[in-house]
Amino acid sequence: MLYAVWATDRPGMLAERQRVREAHRARLRDPGDHPVLVLQAGVTLDETTGAMNGTLLVVQAETPEAVRAFVDGDPYVAAGVYGTIDIRPWRCGLGPLSELSS
Question: For residues 71 and 57, what is the distance between their CA atoms, to the nearest angstrom?
């Protein structure tokens, strides 16, 4: 199953985001023994300033609980960067990930 993870930063967290960004990115590339595969990842941007203000992930996992556990172990979560995190089952209707959707 595919899941979309939409995480929005708390206000004023840009410096903290930048401080732990490389640890966050390294974990997305190599989650270790966690049963979650990160397929797509990117930063969201403030439409006025262009500053980083959140994260959008597309992941593959067996359960939403596995996704939640994966996200809860993220360096941004540990540093208190995210204000909200929304995890939803997602089906790709068009594009290279559509063959993974059932």
Answer: 10
Per-residue pLDDT at 61 exceeds 80: yes
Average pLDDT estimate for 2-19:
97
Mean pLDDT of 70-99: 93
Q: Give the amino acid at 80.
A: G
For residues 34 and 73, the answer to whether their CB atoms sit within 8 Å is: yes
Phi and psi at residue 51, to the nearest 5°: -70, 145
87 assigned to some structural domain: yes
Answer for the pair 10, 76: CB distance below 8 angstroms, yes or no.
no
Beta bridge pairs of residue 84: 8
What's the CATH number where 84 sits? 3.30.70.1060
63-95 as b/e, with b when 16 or more CB fall inside 10 Å?
eeebbbebbeebbbeebebbeebebeebebeee
pTM of structure: 0.90
